[in-house]
Design brief:
It is built from 22 helices and ten strands. The protein is elongated and about 95 Å long. It is α/β, with parallel strands linked by helices and 480 residues long. The chain has two domains: 14-303, NagB/RpiA/CoA transferase-like (Rossmann fold, 3-Layer(aba) Sandwich); 425-477, no CATH class. The longest helix has 23 residues, at 25-47. It has helices at 14-21, 25-47, 52-68, 70-83, 94-107, 119-123, 126-132, 142-149, 166-176, 188-205, 231-237, 258-269, 302-306, 322-326, 328-333, 344-355, 372-376, 383-398, 404-416, 419-440, 453-456, 469-477; strands at residues 87-91, 112-115, 136-139, 208-211, 215-217, 222-227, 241-247, 251-252, 277-281, 292-298. This is L-lactate dehydrogenase complex protein LldF. It comes from Micromonospora purpureochromogenes. Residues 75-298 form the LUD domain. Residues 396-475 form the Lactate utilization protein B C-terminal domain.
């Protein structure tokens, strides 16, 4: 990511970015294999649960309750976490959050930190902010490490390096990872061992760790992280100082509510009945684990999203990525086309709301509205409904501004308001395209000249029919 760039906004609008990614045949092959594998595993373990739909409804209801009582629950969480020895900080936006974390790392006397995989820290551009302050951030999740070494950005919420195959990963390790064996092979076990050796020294030397949180329990001040590799457990227990960056929507009211989400999340994300590592911590425990614990609660557009009665359901998201794995659009263009750290269907509704629709106007249109994302969402986010809602907002944002499309639609509306005028226009169009019809012999037009070239950039244009329905009716029935 370029310095100063917003991690939620791409350099190109989605159509242009997607066109750039589509010719990458290896990318599409990698995505197809990975997403189909994950979604097939998910389908099998979900089918084992007889009350899966009831669990989905319960998860949605808990999240709806959280959004309805957000100020109360945040205050309750702060009080409980503070009583347990944690220090709670508040950040209105990414700039404030990065400034708070940078200050805390400096106060701890560290120039390097180890990190647990965290979407919130990616959202605020924390690694780049720390680098600008002379602090190195080391990603310890294997996939995040791959992306970091490649100087790339993640393309999937759960599997950030999903766009790489193992041969590409081997090459990245050989070229970029300090101490890597030049003869390193591409066997998964060998790659994992190389990463393990590289990271072990980082874990043992780290004074400060940075994490996110999957859930934050309001009643107890507890934070919860779910992961599969054990790197998170190392980060959460070995360093002296732990800083957790948490979006304010990650709250659940009570500890008992975790029962629902600890069934929903592993099955929806990795297709597992339970995740290998579930780490929970509440403030500071003398003599055990980090002795200085900070929690940075981040808004960064969430309050504005909460104000939208339709769009706020995006804040239910538990970052499982199930919607990405079933999305036909994501499967073909990958995560980078979305330009945001939140790709896929959930990114298409979350990013425009966190930034304002004007900054991400094209993302709500990055969907076929097939509804597969809604079917698999463990907390029943009606993504197609929000997409249509945001499309309307994107159109409304442009009202009153000159637009060739709007001018064309107004001209078409004027023609179609009068039956005779419309009939004359059809006859004129047939007459004008008659020579072309003879050449094409029924085939559609692939490219039209400007200004209609925008239409045929992504679709064919059929020629006017040789006879309108009204003309056919008059000829066959003798009625006008």
């Amino acid at each position: 990511m370029k310095p100063g760039a917003n991690p939620l906004v791409g350099e190109l609008p989605f159509p242009a970015a997607a066109e750039r990614e589509l010719p990458r045949a290896q990318l599409r092959l990698n995505l197809q294999r990975a997403t189909h594998t994950i979604r097939d595993k998910r389908s099998r373990v979900v089918d084992e649960v007889p009350d899966w739909e009831e669990l989905r409804a319960a998860g949605s209801a808990i999240k709806t309750d959280v959004l309805a009582r957000m100020p109360e629950l945040l205050t309750r969480f702060e009080a409980a976490a503070t009583a347990a020895g944690a220090q709670v900080h508040w950040a209105r936006d990414a700039t404030e959050a990065c400034a708070v974390v940078t200050r805390l790392v400096r106060e701890a006397g560290a120039d390097e930190v180890v990190k647990v995989k965290s979407m919130a820290t990616q959202e605020i551009g924390l690694n780049e902010a720390l680098a600008a302050a002379g602090i190195a951030a080391v990603e310890t999740d294997l996939a995040e490490l791959i992306v970091q070494l490649a100087d790339d950005t993640p393309s999937h919420i759960l599997v950030p390096a999903i766009h790489y195959n193992r041969r590409e990963i081997r090459d990245i390790f050989r070229e970029r990872m300090a101490g890597a064996d030049p003869a390193l092979g591409d066997e998964p076990a060998a790659l994992a061992e190389a990463a393990r050796q590289h990271l072990r020294a980082k874990f043992l030397a780290a004074k400060v760790a940075i994490s996110g949180a999957n859930f934050a329990v309001a009643d107890t001040g507890t934070l919860v992280v779910l992961e599969s590799e054990g790197n998170g457990r190392m980060c959460l227990t070995l360093p002296e100082t732990l800083i957790s960056v948490v979006g304010i929507e990650k709250l659940v009211p009570t500890f008992a509510d975790l029962e629902v989400f600890l069934q929903l999340l592993p099955r929806s994300s990795t297709g597992e009945r339970m995740n290998p590592y579930t780490s929970m911590w509440t403030g500071v425990t003398p003599g055990d684990g980090p002795q200085t614990v900070h929690v940075v609660l981040v808004d960064n557009g969430r309050t504005a999203t909460l104000a939208d009665p339709v769009g706020r359901q995006a804040l239910h998201c538990i970052r499982c990525s199930a919607c990405l794995n079933v999305c036909p659009v994501y499967e073909r263009v990958g995560g980078h086309a979305y330009g945001s750290v939140y790709p896929g269907p959930i990114g298409a509704i979350l990013s425009p709301q966190l930034t304002g629709v004007a900054a991400n106007r094209s993302l709500p249109f990055a969907s076929t509205l097939c509804g597969a994302c809604y079917d698999v969402c463990p907390v029943r986010i009606n993504i197609p409904e929000v997409l249509v809602h945001l499309r309307q907002a994107a159109v409304d944002d442009q009202r009153g501004r000159p637009s060739p499309e709007r001018t064309a639609m107004r001209a078409t509306a004027w023609l179609m308001r009068d039956r005779r005028r419309y009939a004359r226009a059809l006859r004129a169009a047939r007459a004008a395209t008659a020579p072309l019809a003879g050449v094409l012999r029924g085939r559609p037009v692939r490219r039209l000249p400007w200004p209609m070239s925008a239409w045929t950039a992504t679709r064919d244009a059929p020629l006017p029919a040789r006879e309108s329905f009204r003309e056919w009716w008059a000829r066959n029935r003798g009625e006008s």
